[in-house]
Design goal:
mainly alpha, ABC transporter involved in vitamin B12 uptake, BtuC, ABC_transp_permease
Length: 306
């Protein structure tokens, strides 16, 4: 039973950064913007969170720094694509390359240094309950933030007037503009929110998952988060389910290697990425489902009439 609980805990820890980054990107894409720079924003959040935590001795300050750096990086993307109307795909890819290179340079002095770790929640009388105690009441704070964030985004998008406005912009920015909606302003806010989430996801990696700095420690999680949004057909609750499925695959291959299963370790390590490819192929076969939920203006630049 202890082994099962430990495996479930590691799955939740592995799924949390995927869930947060994907939820942020879902809001961005619902506004009609395609930001492929999630990986770059995550790695900047990771190095910023570790660096601030290490220099100040406070993991909470590190967490705030991770969020701020992710939002700042997304602001660069927003200026380029929304104000200057550059190509969103090319700009997002450039943002990822910039983040990977810049984080490596910033983190040079942090390699091998001890990190600050966010403490797990401990509620007397509840955390000690068998099985469910550690799973429900003994997780790290970002785990609870991720669940609350998913619920909040679901409520915002489908139960509020502002969420309806955001979705209408993603479906037809031209019509929204004709109705007097400030398309660029909404998209700026959505992109910054997505960047803050990506930064928080990166901060989780360097402050909870592995409290240390390792170059390229995101290891493609930003790309998996992007695939999760498509996998979930732009629905928050499906993002939640998908994140835990991918988290289970990620942890499963680690345990398979630890148990000595006679399969090449390189193949086991590639399982999360193979799963991503398989999921995308399966989704692409259902054209009706994909087209029904895809924001119609996704990836299209918008320049308001002067």
């Amino acid at each position: 039973m202890d082994i099962t609980v430990n495996i479930l805990l590691t799955i939740a820890t592995a799924a949390t950064p995927l869930l947060i980054a994907a939820i942020g990107e879902l809001v961005v894409e619902r506004s009609g913007v395609l930001n492929l720079g999630v990986e770059g924003m995550m790695i900047m959040g990771a190095v910023g969170g570790f660096g601030a935590g290490y220099l100040t001795g406070s993991p909470w300050i590190g967490l705030l720094a991770a969020i701020a750096l992710g939002a700042l990086f997304s602001l660069l993307f927003a200026v380029m694509t929304l104000s200057l109307a550059t190509n969103q795909v090319a700009t997002g890819l450039s943002l990822t390359l910039l983040g990977l290179g810049l984080s490596g340079m910033m983190g040079t002095s942090f390699v091998g240094q001890p990190g600050q770790r966010l403490p797990n929640l401990d509620i007397p009388g509840l955390t000690s309950l068998p099985v469910v105690g550690r799973l429900l009441f003994g997780q790290d704070p970002i785990f609870y933030i991720s669940i609350a964030l998913t619920a909040a985004v679901m409520w915002f998008l489908f139960k509020t007037r502002t969420g309806l406005t955001l979705r209408s912009i993603g479906d037809s920015h031209t019509s929204a503009h004709a109705l007097g909606i400030h398309v660029i302003r909404y998209r700026y806010l959505a992109v910054i929110f997505g960047g803050a989430c990506a930064g928080l996801a990166g901060g989780h990696l360097s402050l909870v998952y592995t409290p240390q700095w390792v170059e390229n420690m995101t290891a493609g999680r930003g790309w998996i988060a992007l695939a999760l949004v498509v996998f979930a057909s732009w629905r928050p609750w499906r993002v939640l389910a998908g994140a835990y499925i991918f988290g289970a695959v990620w942890i499963g291959q680690l345990h398979a290697q630890a148990f000595g299963i006679p399969v090449p370790s390189q193949l086991l390590s590639s399982l999360p990425y193979l799963a991503t490819v398989v999921v995308l192929v399966l989704i692409s076969r259902n054209k009706r489902l994909t087209m029904m939920n895809t924001p119609a203006s996704l990836g299209q630049p918008f320049v308001p009439d002067r």
